[in-house]
């Protein structure tokens, strides 16, 4: 989608720092709204001149962001295209999979108003460290925008798909866009969000089931035209080492998933929004959880709900990154200057590279206890760094504990 007249932005999404080069592809299984749509990140074979995909795949996603932010579509599209139209995801598009033993798996769930590509800095870093990461695009009307296909009602008329990298294999399918659904006037928010978080968990579990099929060598049909050969991933995943990870609403999805499916061995919840969850599920969560919070987003009620998941039996860890805001986790924090970033609350007081590096290293340290044989960065789990706070910066009244 890159616009040649767009912003010549020297800012970019940081590449992975691990030993593996990273590839990515899109996978849609089932063309209807009930299908599964995800961006897959994986260790890939080295390439001198990789093709990097656009960070925002097409203009409809800009329109969705505008709607979510309650901005005029025409004006915001020009602004977004100027700022982000040339931004690339630092992963090689459809690069050949690197077969090198069995990789652990992470399912990633995005936040409210986001979509599958907006957390690429996190996903690419994890893939560079030897994980296969599936970033789900949710169809619960919490994404800024997403799409699916329906049977073409006018098969004789040639259609032009909005996203060049997301064309359907079949000519008999037409694109249908789904945008963020705001609350209606007077609507009670909890029933909507609770219904959505349950759907989100189901979508993450379906994504995991698809990875199981790929790993077992079953034929998985991608609705999208794609040069990536899924069969090369057969027997490449360690499906005893599966984590669920997400930001904000995605953090709530982490907890819902842990309750619903024991195949998820642990969860990493980034600046979790606890509101959508029914507290009755908390006793059913038996897996380790790591809460990584920003300094500016959290409040007493939200932290109290996190604390209700504390356990003397199952590991529960929490750290807070100093100088961070809620949007310190998505990629936007790297792609705006200080003035715009602060104005739109996309940046905190800390250098975003330092903040996300701490978050990623702490995540990897937590996962190594359950998955990988390395012991780097262990002190970060306990908040031992000048830029970290052990637990939370929020003071909780003793009467609430």
TrEMBL record:
GO terms for MF: 1-alkyl-2-acetylglycerophosphocholine esterase activity
Gene Ontology process terms (BP): lipid catabolic process
Catalytic activity: a 1-O-alkyl-2-acetyl-sn-glycero-3-phosphocholine + H2O = a 1-O-alkyl-sn-glycero-3-phosphocholine + acetate + H(+)
UniProt superkingdom: Eukaryota
Keywords (A to Z) from UniProt: Hydrolase, Lipid degradation, Lipid metabolism
Short name of any one Pfam family annotated for the protein: PAF-AH_p_II
EC assignment: 3.1.1.47
PANTHER family: PLATELET-ACTIVATING FACTOR ACETYLHYDROLASE
Protein name: Platelet-activating factor acetylhydrolase
Originating species: Sinocyclocheilus grahami
Gene encoding the protein: LOC107553483
């Amino acid at each position: 989608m890159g616009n040649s007249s767009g912003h010549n932005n020297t800012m970019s999404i940081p590449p992975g720092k691990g030993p593996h080069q990273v590839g990515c592809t899109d996978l849609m299984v089932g063309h209807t709204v009930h299908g599964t749509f995800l961006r897959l990140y994986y260790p890939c074979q080295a390439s001198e001149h990789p093709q990097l995909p656009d960070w925002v795949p097409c203009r409809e996603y800009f329109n969705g962001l505008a709607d979510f932010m309650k901005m005029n579509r025409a004006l915001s599209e020009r602004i977004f295209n100027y700022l982000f139209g040339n931004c690339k995801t630092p992963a090689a598009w459809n690069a050949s999979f690197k077969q090198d033993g069995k990789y652990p798996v992470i399912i990633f769930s995005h936040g409210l108003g986001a979509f599958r590509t907006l957390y690429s800095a996190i996903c690419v870093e994890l893939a560079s460290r030897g994980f296969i990461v599936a970033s789900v695009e949710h169809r619960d009307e919490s994404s800024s925008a997403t799409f699916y296909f329906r049977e073409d009602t006018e098969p004789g008329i040639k259609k032009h798909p909005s996203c060049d990298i997301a064309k359907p294999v079949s000519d008999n399918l037409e694109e249908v866009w789904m945008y963020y659904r705001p609350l209606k006037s007077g609507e009670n928010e909890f029933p909507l969000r609770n219904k959505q978080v349950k759907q989100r968990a189901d979508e993450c579990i379906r994504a995991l089931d698809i990875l199981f099929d790929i790993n077992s060598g079953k034929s998985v049909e991608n609705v999208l035209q794609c040069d990536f050969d899924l069969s090369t991933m057969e027997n490449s995943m360690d499906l005893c080492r599966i984590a669920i990870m997400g930001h904000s609403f995605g953090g709530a999805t982490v907890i819902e998933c842990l309750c619903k499916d024991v195949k998820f061995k642990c969860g990493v919840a980034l600046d979790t929004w606890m509101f959508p969850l029914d507290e009755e599920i908390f006793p059913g969560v038996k897996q380790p959880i790591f809460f990584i919070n920003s300094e500016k987003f959290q409040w007493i009620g939200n932290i109290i709900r996190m604390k209700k998941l504390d356990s003397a039996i199952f590991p529960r860890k929490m750290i807070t990154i100093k100088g961070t805001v809620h949007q310190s986790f998505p990629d936007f924090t790297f792609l705006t200057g200080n003035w715009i970033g602060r104005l739109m609350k996309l940046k905190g007081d800390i250098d975003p590279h330092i903040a996300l590096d701490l978050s990623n290293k702490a995540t990897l340290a937590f996962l190594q206890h359950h998955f990988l044989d390395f012991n780097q960065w262990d002190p970060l789990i306990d908040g031992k760094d000048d830029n970290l706070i052990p637990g939370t910066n929020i003071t909780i009244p003793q009467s609430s504990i």
